[in-house]
TrEMBL record:
It comes from Sphingomonas metalli. Zn(2+) binds at residues 77, 80, 117, 120. This is Ferric uptake regulation protein. One of its GO terms (biological process) is regulation of secondary metabolite biosynthetic process. Its cofactor is Zn(2+); Mn(2+); Fe(2+).
Amino acid sequence: MRAAVYAALAANERPASAYDIAEAVSRAEGRRVVANSVYRILDLFVAANLAQRVESANAYIVNAHPGCLHDCIFLICDRCGRTDHIDDDRISQDLRGAASAAGFAPVRPVVEVRGLCAACTES
């Protein structure tokens, strides 16, 4: 089941919800797969750094750099839905430092920038 969920997630060019993945796996396997099962598997993938959660969309993407442990900054296109991520440790450290200075113990910064990707800006 984990392999099927990963394959369905990897087949998407854009972030996919657990419901999208459950539907794809259900079609591929010819049996009904519920989103709750997919959520549990996606949580395992996120914990293992194999997938990343796009918080604002409640969706997931395959982690293109599973060996890296950066705080990702997601760039989300409002027109086409394309989601890219960049790693900028300086920004992450600044966010963590600001949170610590305010007496907050940061665990995982979530930074998402919404706008238009280069392709949508040109069209």
